[in-house]
Description:
Layout: E1 13-18, E2 29-34, E3 39-44, H1 52-63, E4 68-73, H2 81-99, E5 106-111, H3 120-128, H4 140-146, E6 155-161, E7 164-171, E8 184-192, H5 195-208, E9 224-235, H6 238-258, E10 266-274, H7 277-288, H8 291-299, H9 305-312, E11 326-329, E12 332-335, H10 340-351, E13 355-361, E14 367-374, H11 378-385
Parallel strand pairs: 4-5, 8-9, 10-13
Antiparallel strand pairs: 1-2, 2-4, 3-9, 6-7, 7-8, 10-14, 11-12, 11-13
Helix pairs in contact: 1-2, 2-3, 5-6, 7-9
Amino acid sequence: MSGPGSLPLPAGFSAYTGRIGLRAEGDDVWVVLGQPGTTCAAVFTKSRFAGPSVTVSRAHLATGRPRAAVVVAKNANVATGDPGRRDAEEVAALVAAAAGTAPEDVLVASTGVIGRRYPMDAVRSHLQALPPVPAWHAGPSDLARAMMTTDTHPKVAARPAGGAQVVGVAKGVGMIEPDMATMLAFVFTDAEVETATLDRLWRRAVERTFNCLSVDSDTSTSDSAVVFASGVAGPVDEIVLSQALSEVCLDLTLQLARDGEGATKLLTVTVSSARDDDQARRVAKAVLNSPLVKTAVHGADPNWGRVAMAVGKCSDDTDIDQDQVVIRFGDMETYPTDPGPEGLSRLRAIMAADHVDIEIDLGIAYGSATVYGCDLSDGYVRINADYTT
C-alpha cells in the first residue's frame, strides 16, 4: 500500500525540505536526521562513473556511523572531477553543522543532469540558513516530492513491523536499471537493529526488488538505496522486520515501474524452472529490456515471438533448450502451443490491459525470478530528447 500524504516518519527521525532554486518550482533539497544511536545500511551503484555523492557516501558509510542524509534534486554533480567531490564533502559538512553531528555521519545523494557542478553559492547559502532541528517537521510525501525529477508523482510506502514502523520513499523513472548492490530510495524504521543485521536484511530486500527493476536498461551514476533504523520502538523479530522491509521495497519498485518515463503499462516478467535464480533473472531481464517486447506491449501487438527472440539472445546459457521452454502471457500459453487466429485476438486483449504479465518456464531446474518494468512509448523518447532543454 502506498502511504497517504499525512503519513509521518517513524519515531526518532526529524526531516526538513526546502527550496534552493534548482528547479522551476517546489522544494529541491531535503535532510533527514536520526537520533543518536541510529544504525544505517546502504548499497550504491556499480557504475564506473559514480558521482561524488556516491563516493563520499561510501566513504562515510565505511568510516562513520551515518544517521543523516541530504538529497539535492535536479543536479547530479556527476563527472565534475575533484571540484565536484569537494562540493559534495562541503554539502555533508554544512548539513552536519546544522544537525549537530559529524560530517562523516551524513550521506549525500543527488539526482539530475550529469556534468554540472552544484551552484555552490546558492547551496551554501541555503544550508547555512537551515532552521534548528526541532523545527524540522517534513513527512515522507514531502521528501518524495522534493527529490522528484521526471517522476509524475511522489512515491511513498509503509508497513508495520511488529511494534515498529517501516516507511520508504523513492524517485526515479528514467535511466533506471539499478545495479547496486538517478534511482534513489530511502527507508526509515524505528526498529532497534544492529548494523550487521540491518545490512544483511537490506541487501536481501534490495536484491529481490530494486535490483529486479528496469525502465530502460540504463544504470544511473547516482543509484543509492539507504535504510536507517532509529531504535526507538525496540527490538523486532528479524523475520517480521525482513518481511516489512521487502514489502516496502517491492511497493516502491512497482510504483517506480508504473511511473517509468512515458509508461502506460506495468510489465512483469517471471522466469521459472531455471538452472538457478541468477539465470532466471538474467533471462527475465533480457525479455523485460527488449525494445521490441516493450513496444509490442505498448501497442498491444500480439507478437509473442519477440519474447522467444529475447530468451534466445541469452546465447551463453547453453542449457536453454527451446524444446523445453513454455511461454505464457497471463494464463494463456503462446509457445509451444500455437495460439492461432482466435488466440491472437485473445492475446491482443490481454496485452491491452494496464498490467501485462509474461511467464517463461525454462524446464531446466528450480531457479526463479520476477522482474518489473514498463512499456516503451513515444513519450519516453520525447522526455529524453528534450531532457536538458
